[in-house]
Amino acid sequence: MWGVCDQLCEDRIGSHRCSCREGYTLEQHRYCRADVSTGVPSLIFSNGRDLLIGDIHGNSLRTLVHSQNRGVAVGVDFHYNLHRIFWTDTIQNKVFSVDMDGSNMQVVLNISVDYPENLAVDWVNNKLYVVEASVNRIDMVDFDGSNRVTLITENLGNPRGLAVDPTVGYMFFSDWEALNGQPGLERAFMDGTNRYGIIGSKLGWPAGITLDIEAKRIYWVDSRYDYIETATYDGLHRKTVVHGGAVIPHPFGISLFEHNVYFTDWTKMAVMKANKFTDNSPQVVYSTSQTPHGVAVIHQLKQPYVPNPCSVDRGGCEQICVLSHRSDNGGLGYRCKCRIGYDLHADGKRCLAVRQFLLFSSQLAVRGIPFNLSSQEDIILPVTGSPSYFVGVDFSAEDDAIFFSDTAKDIIYKQKVDGTGREVLAANRVDGVEDLAYDWISKNLYWTDPRYRSISVMKLADKSRIHHT
Asked: Residue 267 pairs with which residues in a beta bridge?
């Protein structure tokens, strides 16, 4: 019954009985409070520039990480047991991590990352999920940036919010322009399969999302229609928590702890708190001088322990083991994935190096995919970058490199298939190069340029142009 019990509700004749899960204590016959023994919660958020941390009552605020090179921290999440904070920076196009005391900052991702809007931590299998809004992609990566895998890249229009529940193997994300061109909220298995639209109506700009893992509900903010709403993991029993342009004029990020939601608002310039069932007068927890972005409440009980089926020998996977829904893969609750450049064997465990693949370009990216049409795996690390418009492409098997033209920048590039070693081959008189062809015997690169009505040839050994017609 909605709004009666914080967590568990037992129907009785003519009444009901509330109870709480392990680690919580029932108060006032309804509310579930975290036991004192489980630790004191902290609240971390981006003030539009730096990462700040304080308590959930509006006290003890301090700067955890100062902005890096005028960057903007946006999405933020944590790993409680590893005492680690993760965040995205949409100006630098990087993903960072740092210890909870502000030390030991590291770059997690900095190659082929384009507008990382949000992220989510899988605390069971120690993986990081990242949404890249400009190139419509959801990737998964280890905490050190290795073993990067693209999970979802088809039928995304403008993905924004992201959350995972590894206790059941679900991933949730918001998309401003889903498959039908309309905004939507989707649920998928954490390996990227079995996508299911859970909310598809009365949505404007669905942004940040968070999960009530105990009650198995998703909460989201809508920064166009000015509300916080919630539904079950299946998209049922949808309820409005906070609404109204005067009360919640432009929400962005959201987190949940006990019986409250904490959210950021760009117009109020604040981190605010509201009852998770209904609240017409949210309270300001922290005011900011700039537009606040991501927010997360840090506490042990937000990341409960469940057995990790990938913990022993990667679940039998040769390369990467990814959590999935607990019923998936014959009840194993995980699936095997392969690193970039490999394709999964029919046995579902081994990985085979891909010798033949399709290289293609689009406005958003240069990608290489296997000829196996059922696979979304990337064979090369996708080439991205805004503003860009990728057109001509070719491949050098000898040194595992690709050539591509960017007609937005009017440059021809070469780089390794793993995303490293990018170099400019030509940036003069290459306006609008529409096609490339690599001669692997003479090591020459040919290209067509309709603006100059020309075909040009470059000797790659010294980057000299040896012919121009």
From this structure: none
pTM score of the predicted model: 0.90
**pLDDT per residue over 408-423, tens digit each?**
899 999 999 888 888 9
pLDDT at 439 over 90: yes
In angstroms, how far apart are the furthest CA atoms of the chain? 90
DSSP, collapsed to helix, strand or coil, labels residue 326 as: coil
DSSP-derived secondary structure letter, 407: T
* Among 77, 155, 68, residue whose Cα is nearest residue 110: 68
Contacts of 420 (CB under 8 A, 6+ apart): 111
> Can you tell me the distance from the alpha carbon of 418 to that of 408, in angstroms, rounded to the nearest whole number?
23
Q: Within 13 Å of residue 295, how many CA atoms lie on the same side as its CB?
A: 35
Mean pLDDT for 87-105 is: 95
The residues near 205 (Cβ < 8 Å, ≥ 6 apart) are 160, 176, 183, 222, 223, 224, 225
What is the number of other CB atoms lying within 10 angstroms of the CB of residue 68?
17
Q: Give the length of the chain.
A: 469
What gap in Å lies between CA 90 and CA 88, rounded to an integer?
A: 6
Angle at CA of residue 205, ends 166 and 234, nearest 5°: 40
Give the other-Cβ count within 10 Å of 90's Cβ. 21
Return phi, psi of residue 376, to 5°: -105, 5
For 210-248, letters b (16+ CB in 10 Å) and e give: bbbbbbebbbbbbbebbbbbbbebebeeebebbbeeebb
| Lowest-confidence segment of 56-70, 147-161, 357-371 by average pLDDT | 357-371
Residue 337 has pLDDT above 80, yes or no: yes
Q: What is the pLDDT of residue 467?
A: 66
- 3-state SS class at 197: strand
Spatial CB neighbours of 26, under 8 Å, sequence gap ≥ 6: 18, 19, 20, 32
How buried is residue 420: exposed, middle or buried, by Cβ count under 10 Å (0-12/13-18/19+)? exposed
